[in-house]
Predict the structure of Ligase-associated DNA damage response exonuclease.
Amino acid sequence: MVKLGDWIDPQPGGIYVKPGDVWIDPSSPQPRALVTHGHADHARGGHGAVWATPETLAIMGVRYGPQSGTPVAYGEALAFGDVYARFVPAGHVLGSAQIVLEHRGETIIVSGDYKRRPDPTCAPFEPTPCDVFVTEATFGLPVFRHPETGDEIDKLTAALRANPTRCVLVGAYALGKAQRVIAELRARGFDDPIYIHGALQRLCDLYADHGVMLGELRPATEASKAELAGRIVIAPPSALQDRWSRRLPDPITAMASGWMRVRQRAVQRGVELPLILSDHADWDELTSTLLEIAPKEVWVTHGREEALVHWCQMHQIKARALMLHGYEDEDD
C-alpha cells in the first residue's frame, strides 16, 4: 500500500523531494535547494543552485555573497521532474515562503517558519489546503500565548517616556525582528530617530530597498551619550551585555522575543523590560492553522513536537514528529 507523502524523505539535514531530486532547506550544501526564508538555520551558502523568493535571495546575498539563485515570485509555478512547486507567503520575515509541492495527485506543504499576526514588514501567511502539512512547533506548548503586538510596543514607548535621561536598548535578532520592532514603532506613531547597532545596518537597508518604511535610522556609535538619552537603541541580542553597550546612557535593557514569556530566560539575560514579540506562531495560532487547513496528516518539526503531535491525535488528525536536526529559533 502506498503511503501518503512517501515521495518526500525527511532526513536529519533537511527534506529531500525524491522524484524532483531537490532539497528543501538543507543544512549542508546540495546540488539543488528550495529555500523557505533567509534565517541561517534554513538558508545556507554553498548550494549548486537555489530557488527562493527575490527577497530571500537578496538576504542570502548579504549573508553569504552572490548566489546561483533563481528568483521565484509568490504563486509562480516550477517543475522539478513531475513534481510541481510554488511558493506562497509564510508571514515570518521578508520574503518568507511556504513551499507547496504537488505530485501523484497529492499536495504537501513545507511551511518553514510562519506566524499569523499582522506584520508591516512582510506578506501575511496564506492558508492553503493540502494533504500533508509540515509545520514548525517552536512555541508548540499551551503556555505560549503571545500578547497583542501593540501592547508590547506601548510598553516600550512608555518605558522611554518614564525615563527621559536613560535610553532603551532593545535586543532584537538582526533579520526580521529588528526591522519589525522598528516598523511596529512607526505604525504606533513613533517618529523620532531610532539608533541601531552597525550589525543591523545592511539588513535594514535591504528592507528599505524592498519598500519597508523604517523611518530615520542613525548609527548608535556616532552619537554621544547625551544624544542617546531618551532614545531607542536596537542591537543584536549578543550586544546587550557586551562592551558595546557601555557607551549608552544607563540603558533600560529590553529584549524582543517570544521566549520572554519564560521569566527565567529574561532573568538569565539580565533583561529589565521583556517584550513578548515573536515571528513564530504561538500555540493557539498553530492549532487554529491546522484546523483551518485541515490536512490529512501533520508532520511536526523543529520545536516542541510531542505536544503538538498529541493535540493532533486528540483531534483525529494523523501526526508524527520529524526530528530534523540543526534547526534553532535564532533568538526569536
